[in-house]
Input
Amino acid sequence: MTAQQRGWGGIKNGDLLGLAESEFELFITADQNIRYQQNLAGRSIPILKLSTNKLRRLTAAAASIQSAIPTMKPGEFRHLEIP
Output
């Protein structure tokens, strides 16, 4: 589900992460600066940052994305390079 689909389209990243923590088990983003723009310390939600938001590349890398998800721990930040 995207932030727009959830009705959170205009919400800033810090507030968005707080909302996501209360309703979801994982936050997936392609925002390349999230780690530097947000204080991620103390977050309980795992954050998976993808290196692209290009649908063709994400579809091709679906197996890699799916295999990363179950191994993520609460509060973990992980970057996944999508070829």
User: Anything to note?
Assistant: Residues 3-80 form one domain. The helical segments are 3-6, 13-23, 34-37, 55-60, 62-68.
